[in-house]
């Protein structure tokens, strides 16, 4: 049973949300009926509905407003997660099933910009959770340490171009810290959305950063997700970047079992990041298309691309440089998600050249 104090907080939070003009998906789908059906439920990790929705209640300007405190929450609180997932992931219904993992044939991709005229850099990342551990809000200090040990010993076994160093945030020297900031590798303690979701407890215990010598492969340990695995380099060679990621993920997976669900794919803390969890992106200069926003958006929507400013969401395109990535992560394979971005960027470059 959920204790009285939690129920009281839930009721107060629900009233606050209902009275607000919040545009979040949480407000849209947390009806009284759904609320009453879920308020007394708990996962085996002890998570309640409050753990899922507290960030969205505290931050009424959230776009989504909900996190999963553990992998089970997606099932226990499905009445709320399912419609939010369907809304965010382009109609991925509760009767739909995410396809099995398939990285496809890496060799069919190539360099999108061999002459280096348009693409500044290319990056592909995915998120993974370690099986048997809850997500941030439920982790104990001991679990954070244990996970960091597992991750650091696993990564230290990587060979070849993936070989590198693990830097724990705990006790990090000022020099190392500055170097990681200069490389844009260092992550900071979570923003107010993550803080309110209780995702930053025991900071910086259990948090760390791994990168290879070439600085083209990066792993974040216990930032928002247990693992964020990132491959990147300057220029437009998506094949190389993708191949590196695939090799790394397959290697890590042999030693660390990941949380996976037959219907939703790979599970992470945020419901926007399920299924393949893959985000493939480029920083790209499109000065002519920048002057024709309508055309840019038209091509972007045809290939399900997300167009952001240079520094991510809600920022300007500095010097006509955009951050463009695949929007779809669920209901299609890893290969298809990346291929969609590949085809869309190829099309954008073709149009830019013709203008």
From TrEMBL:
User: Whose protein is this, by species?
Assistant: Papilio xuthus (Asian swallowtail butterfly)
Positions contributing to ATP binding: 121-125, 184, 228, 279-283, 308-313
Which keywords are on file for this protein?
A: ATP-binding, Kinase, Nucleotide-binding, Transferase
According to the entry, every stretch annotated as the Phosphagen kinase N-terminal domain falls at 6-90
A single GO molecular-function term is: creatine kinase activity
- The residue ranges crossing the membrane are none
**Family membership noted in the UniProt record:** Belongs to the ATP:guanido phosphotransferase family.
Keyword Transmembrane helix assigned to the entry: answer is no
- Highest taxon of the source? Eukaryota
SUPFAM superfamilies recorded: Glutamine synthetase/guanido kinase, Guanido kinase N-terminal domain
Instruction: Kindly list the biological process annotations in GO that this record carries.
Output: phosphocreatine biosynthetic process
Which residues does the UniProt record annotate as the domain Phosphagen kinase C-terminal? 118-355
| Listed name of the protein | arginine kinase
